[in-house]
Amino acid sequence: MQHEQKPVQALKAHLALNVKDVEVSLEFYRKLLGIEPSKVRTGYAKFDVQNPPLNLTLNEHAFNERGALSHLGIQVASTDDVLAMRRRWTDARLLTRDEMQTNCCYALQDKTWVRDPDGNEWEVFVVLEDNLAETAPCECGTKLEDSASNIEALKTESAAACCAPTPIGITNASAVSKAGCC
Length: 182
Fold this sequence. Notes:
By secondary structure, the chain is α/β, with parallel strands linked by helices. The chain is built from three helices and eight strands; from the N terminus they run βαββββαβββα. The protein has two domains: about 50 residues, 2,3-Dihydroxybiphenyl 1,2-Dioxygenase, domain 1; about 100 residues, 2,3-Dihydroxybiphenyl 1,2-Dioxygenase, domain 1, CATH 3.10.180.
């Protein structure tokens, strides 16, 4: 006897991040998301994000280095949306950096980036042209707009791979080790 498969109605994605200090991370994520957390407990916080639908939790956990996470992102509809988000983050006094008209992950994109207190990279991006040829050169991180205020804050960090954002202050793309493109 077969039962009819009823489609599952997904409500939203869930992302749980380990953070070194929930209190420090709360301040960053309030600014990043522009909302207050829906729940805060000792060593734990939850943001119930409506746009885009996301259940984001912060879990305090001691760790020494970044894990396997590459980066996090929010895809938007237009470059105007990317710029609007950058303005919101800048107004919230977050350090931003841009990659405009960049070939990343075999797509032409406009994007802006921020980094949380634990080093997790967040991007807001729009795909302008997708499915570029595999022979197209990957330019991830090579068209960043330098910002003097960001150079001191980020100059000791390095990019791990093509789609990991290049630290501000590195203007010579060959100085950044690129493990391969997405």
